[in-house]
From TrEMBL, chain A:
Residue spans of biased composition, Polar residues class: 128-140, 147-162
Superkingdom per UniProt: Eukaryota
Compositional bias per record (Basic and acidic residues), positions renumbered to this chain: 1-15, 164-185, 255-286
UniProt cross-references to Pfam families, sorted A to Z: IF-2B
Protein name as catalogued: Translation initiation factor eIF2B subunit delta
Low complexity: compositionally biased ranges: 37-52, 98-113, 215-239
Family, per entry: Belongs to the eIF-2B alpha/beta/delta subunits family.
Region (Disordered): 1-65, 87-288
Membrane-crossing residue ranges in chain numbering: none
UniProtKB/TrEMBL annotation, chain B:
Localisation per UniProt entry: Cytoplasm, Cytosol
Region (Disordered): 142-175
Species name: Trapa incisa
Subunit structure: Component of the translation initiation factor 2B (eIF2B) complex which is a heterodecamer of two sets of five different subunits: alpha, beta, gamma, delta and epsilon. Subunits alpha, beta and delta comprise a regulatory subcomplex and subunits epsilon and gamma comprise a catalytic subcomplex. Within the complex, the hexameric regulatory complex resides at the center, with the two heterodimeric catalytic subcomplexes bound on opposite sides.
Name of the protein: Translation initiation factor eIF2B subunit beta
Family (UniProt): Belongs to the eIF-2B alpha/beta/delta subunits family.
Major subcellular site: cytoplasm
Keyword field: Cytoplasm, Initiation factor, Protein biosynthesis
GO CC annotations, alphabetized: cytosol; eukaryotic translation initiation factor 2B complex
Gene Ontology molecular function, alphabetical: guanyl-nucleotide exchange factor activity; translation initiation factor activity
InterPro entries to which the protein is assigned, alphabetical: eIF2B_beta_subunit, IF-2B-related, IF_2B-like_C, NagB/RpiA_transferase-like
Basic and acidic residues bias spans: 160-171
Amino acid sequence: MDSRRASRAVIDPKVRHVGFVTPNAPPDRAQSFPQESNSSPLSASPASNTLSPVMIPPPRHPSENLTTFRTAAIPVPEQTRLRAESVVFEGSYDPTESLSSSSFQTQSPPASSRLFVDEEFSEESWLHRNNSAKFASSSPAPGCGFNLTSVKEVSGGDSTVISEVKKPAEASANEKNEASNDRSKNALPSGPSSKSLKAKTTKSERRALQESQRAAKAAAKAQGNKPAPAASSKAAKQPSQKKEASIAPPSAAASEKKGTDRPSERERKKDAPAPRMQFDDKSRVEKAKKRALVNQTEARNRVEYFRHLPQYEYGTQLPDLQSKLFQLDPMHPAVHKVGLQYLAGDVTEDNGRCIAMLQAFSEAIRDYTTPDEKVITRDLTAKIGSYVSFLIECRPLSTSMGNAIRFLKSRIVKLPLTLSESEAKASLCSDIDRFINEKIVLADKVIVRHATTKIRDGDVILTYGAPSVVEMILTHAHELGKQFRVVIVDSRPNLEGQSLLRRLVTKGLKCTYTHLNAVSYIMHEVSRVFLGASSILSNGIVYSRVGTASVAMVAHAFCVPVLVCCEAYKFHERVQLDSICFNELGDPNDVAKVPGRRDINYLDSLDKKENLQLLNLMYDATPSDYISMVVTDYGMIPPTSVPVIVREYRQEQLWI
Amino acid sequence: MPDVQSLVNEFILKLKKRKVEGSQATSRHAAVLLRSVISQQRIGYTNQAGTLIDAVKAVGEQLVAANPVELAVGNIVRRVLHIIREEDLSLTTAAMAGLNLSALSDDDDDTGPVDHPVLSAAAVAAASRSTLRPPSLQTLLEDMPDSTAVPHTSSSGGDSEGKSKSADKSSRSRKLKHDVIEALNELIQDIDTCHEQIAEQAVEHIHHNEVILTLGSSRTVLQFLCAAREKKRSFRVFVAEGAPRYQGHLLAKELVSRGLQTTLITDSAVFAMISRVNMVIVGAHAVMANGGVIAPVGLNMVALAAQRHAVPFVVLAGSHKLCPLYPHNPEVLLNELRSPSELLDFGEFSDCMDFGSGLGSPLLHVVNPSFDYVPPKLVSLFITDTGGHNPSYMYRLIADYYSADDLVLQRKAASSS
């Protein structure tokens, strides 16, 4: 373990220092990314740009860690609930596990023998989350309650306080509807016994704790890599120090989820995104439901292959949510509005969704006031987390949104404690604006500039759906006076192509409109295919609007070059091979009903039939060999270079 | 005769208005129509086969011109011509045999064409034997197609006329028509039952827990799947809806009502789902001589996806869909563009169209083809009512059904008219 850690710590910085030179990257862009550092983002020196940011936190001792963790766990039961909500949909591990168990562990004195057990335990549960049962054979309940009790049983018996706490907690663990805040209340009685310790915690320690917890949470955000400060700080530490840190019991427990305090673990997992919530895991789905703000009923006829994805009855959430407009106290109205927009399908385009979300967050941050006795970095993260979970309930996040949230959270985590609340808020808002500006708006401009060079006079350009970047490219090329024709291929049920068609035709572009099935008919005429993408994964798979793969395939078969236009902030280090393991399912009724075609009503009477399933996939995965080129804000690259961009620019991308 | 003409006109009108759809219905209609044409056709004593062929060609030409894309009509016309030639040939050889062996009289002739090989094998000389066989590779190689048979018949008719007197004549003329109509009835019956015959093979191709994907709707596919279902095979079907006609909805409804586990997907999800599919089973509009398929729009995409994932792409086609022509640029030449209103609401885009009209050419085109061409390399197997065949074998199968000199039916008709 230690040896691996040590080697990892050595290797990793090396990897990061490898320079990746992109001549195409606009200079202003490069300068506009202040590096991650301890200081305020605005004050980052340009010199630090090329170096990987390394943060060295104050040295800690196990006991101190202990106490800081307790302070974190005790005060805000409400918050833990929110956190739980925020995470539940994205990763398949439950944040309450780590939170509650960490709060429990803090109660017990750090007996070294126990510590190692804990460490092992957390390690174990990392790898097989559901197998943690072996540590607590007495308790049949799976999930978080389970871990909770198991931890206690391992650690229990040291003091009477603990054994007292243990019983109610065990009871609650078996009751599924006991929310995590109950558990943290259970944890509270032990608080007084450790008050003296708490008093000793220094500000920096508390901060370190918060960072680590936030890191754990950011990690939980399905985005997988959470190079939160705690991580980088750990990476910078020498192995001996790391060992020390990993021995600390609370951190070990926290790492059960994400390995916050174990640099080696973190480093190792860095490239492995956290597993997502799997909806065929009944117990977790149950728990998630308890916390859900939006009432969703599960679809009756779920498609067998997609049981791991949420399949809900549609049409019920929107009115339900609208009626709750004034009841949802924790929800900022701006966020609520965006959620309703997602639900109603008003904002469907990827960038649009991302921008709407970020703007809502920025509004929410502006209106935010830190409650008494809370720290802005911590409370705000929880707040954002609850917003995100709400948005997820309205519609699952796209990868780009996940990246944006990751960015925002990392910004919050890195807020210097010296900043006043208003300063912090202003800095966050400007960060958000900058993200929107640079990662989306400017990136699009760069892409448009690159891509228009690929349009020649006489070209026939095919596009599928209504990707906003491609629309910009076409308009720009048209404004440049290039003579070309556009073929818009569209498909049910969304038919976004029609709106694109309308916009292009009114701008005076020559358009041909057809449906997806006819793509091999029209492909003879086509000389270029421009596609948008929701995300490009690091194995080169283009994760995009469903049907994109078919278009790319046909183009490939007809030897027509396929250009995928995608902003780099949508790149993701996750890998995927097919469109089934992860996807989003739309309203199945959209498949059965054909608007405007009264004669197509064969399925109207069959809604209730058991053996009829309707599948409305939202995305599919285009194999990279169909893609000739990816046009991104870092230049034009082959799809195989996506992981390089992800690796080399991730830091910069995340921290701006 | 006039009533036949009115029938023909009626059918032509239907074809032009695309009122008859689906190759099975069309081919059945065509066969019935040609049967009545033949039965009404007065034939003289000489060159009876020639008269019939001319009559059928004349009608066939009109029918084909009415809807050139509906290849089934042309197929049936060619089939009928082929039947006439065959019957005539067999009658001639029988007559020759009758001449040679006077002991074999009319009642032997009544047994029809099927028995003739036996008869010939028993009695007829080697020369007549070769003409009796259905057109085979040998005849093709020898370049002795039925074109030579037609003059041969007329001459032999003359011979028989000269030798055996008037009683024989009347029976022969009646006989040719009678046999042709008999054979036509068989053909019509074949067309009617081709679904069942294809469906009978279902169990040989579908096993338990199979996942099958299909696009659009085809009665052949429906019956094929149902036949497998009736044999207690449990499997799952993905039905792509087949925009813009959405026949897949219809198929899904039928399958569901017969208790099959059915999932309806959008066409765009085909690529996503094909990796979990064991077999693609689709119907066809027509099968060309090179093994290529004229299929409902969207199937080329499905076939490409199937090829990518090494999923067998199986085409079900009754023998009336076998077209003896080789396709040239079939995506365009053998296609039909349907109304744009299936894709776009005109009210919505009328302003765009107006905008374009000022520039001379409209800014907006809407393309809505109804067929796709699937090249033979993408097809794994054809299942016809005569069994399963490789795409590369199609040309041979076609030689069984059509006479070589009918292939150019259309052009000949066009030049003559």
